What does this fold into?
Amino acid sequence: MRIAVFVLGKEGYSLACKINGGYEKTEIYAPLKLAKTINEKNIIFFDEPLSKKVSKIFNDYEVLIFVMALGIVVRVIAPL
It folds into this structure.
């Protein structure tokens, strides 16, 4: 099962790492602005709006986990 975890901040990244530790095929996505504060190679940084990134990869994963406010998630996935 492929899992994508989306984070928007450093604290969210810490939680995503805990999720990542329990599953083999987990990929963590974070905005490019976090590349300076998160120095890890196992993270996929994106420089486009969250809604565009999610719409591009929506069908590539069985599970999408969002570590952020629920209102953001609803606005991002509602059009899909």
